[in-house]
Amino acid sequence: VCLNWSSGQHPLVQNQTVTEGRTAIMTCRVEYNDQTSLQWSNPTQQTLFFGNKKALRDNRIELVRASWSELTISISEITLADEGMYTCSLFTMPVKTAKAYLTVLGVPEKPEIDGLTKPALEGDEITLTCMTHGSKPAANLRWFRNEKEIKGAKEVNASGKTFTVTSSLQLLVDRDDDGAAYTCKVDHVALLQTPQQTTEVLEVHYAPRVLITQSLTFPQEGQYLKLECVSKGNPSPDPVLWTKDGGELPDLERMIVQGRELTFSALNKTDNGTYRCVASNHLGTSSAEYILYVYDPNAMGQRGPDHALIGGVVAVVVFVTLCLIIFLGRYLARHKGTYLTNEAKGADDAPDADTAIINAEGNTHAEGKKEYFI
């Protein structure tokens, strides 16, 4: 708030900032007044009040307080046209004046989001545009994806006393965007308590992807088995198609298809084979395979094939490790003995162990030569 004041018989006023549509209070005071009249005038120099007498026929303008030391008026339903310099005059000789500037904040309209294609296709490039009109000063636009802020490209255009603000967001549509909420929020000094925002939910269509899950890791004869075709696509790929070894399911009494599930009431060896699940929508087709091998429970035993296999591998690893330890131990022991023997042979005249070895080897060669010439 800016003050324009002086002591004595001089009017004192304050600059005012008011949001569009609200009420402005304009006050003019005099510290020492010898019963001289006060007057308020608008930016076009039209007299609003002279003392307690209304001069301009405007129902929005009312008297709040009038005395020799103060003249206060109110202007309701403020518009941008009311903005400007207001003058308080003290009719002394000469007339003394003080000026107060009334700033009107333009309230931005609720933002609108354009460019949303419903539905969008995976792989599409789309541009979302958020726009708001009527702000003064220019508003700020912020984008959020599921409450996480993301950056857009801002553009500001003046329109009279107000501004039109636009923010664009470019997207390469992915299946993860399906159901994502994109929100455009307006930040402005006139919206501190009532923020404006708009949200659009993105719908994305994409081809299916398929995965088969099984209820048993090692299915055995006589057991119940369930295979589920987990397919995700938009639109939803229903129904799915089950086949065995490239053809139709052979035994529909034991092999029951319910929705995405294929169940076997009691497995037997004839069920062995490759099972395929196929899911389709208008954007594409996807499939997954599961190779079923039915184990003989008598051959597996109570521990199961996994325990037998693991036990065999562990036994082989332990055996090989022991063999290596024994071999290395014998090898090191033999070489250590040779080293000690040679060291003893040359130790008499040698200053260290290495020299002793060399001397010992030399003596050996010499003796060999001696025996050769005898």
Q: Mean pLDDT, rounded to whole units?
A: 85
**Structural class estimated from helices and strands:** alpha+beta
How much of the sequence lies in strands comes to 35-45%
Overall strand count:
27
Rg, nearest Å: 48 Å
Biggest β-sheet strands, sense, barrel = 6 strands, mixed
Secondary structure: helix percent = 10-25%
| Structure annotation, total helices | 3
Report the span from N to C terminus: 127 Å
Please state the overall shape, judged from the principal axes of the Cα atoms: elongated
Q: Runs with pLDDT <50, length 5+?
A: 1-7, 338-347, 360-374
What string gives the helices and strands in order?
EEEEEEEEEEEEEEEEEEEEEEEEEEEHHH
* Side-by-side strand order of the widest sheet: 3-11-10-5-6-7
Outline the secondary-structure elements.
Blueprint: E1 3-4, E2 11-14, E3 16-19, E4 24-30, E5 38-41, E6 47-50, E7 53-54, E8 61-66, E9 70-75, E10 84-90, E11 96-105, E12 112-114, E13 120-121, E14 125-135, E15 140-145, E16 148-150, E17 153-159, E18 162-172, E19 181-187, E20 196-201, E21 204-214, E22 225-234, E23 241-244, E24 255-258, E25 261-264, E26 273-281, E27 284-292, H1 297-300, H2 304-345, H3 353-373
Parallel strand pairs: 3-11, 13-21
Antiparallel strand pairs: 1-2, 2-4, 4-9, 5-6, 5-10, 6-7, 8-9, 10-11, 12-14, 14-18, 15-16, 15-19, 17-18, 19-20, 21-22, 22-25, 23-26, 24-25, 26-27
Keywords: Disulfide bond, Immunoglobulin domain, Membrane, Repeat, Signal, Transmembrane, Transmembrane helix
Membrane topology: Single-pass type I membrane protein
InterPro entries: CD80_C2-set, Ig-like_dom, Ig-like_dom_sf, Ig-like_fold, Ig/MHC_CS, Ig_sub, Ig_sub2, Ig_V-set
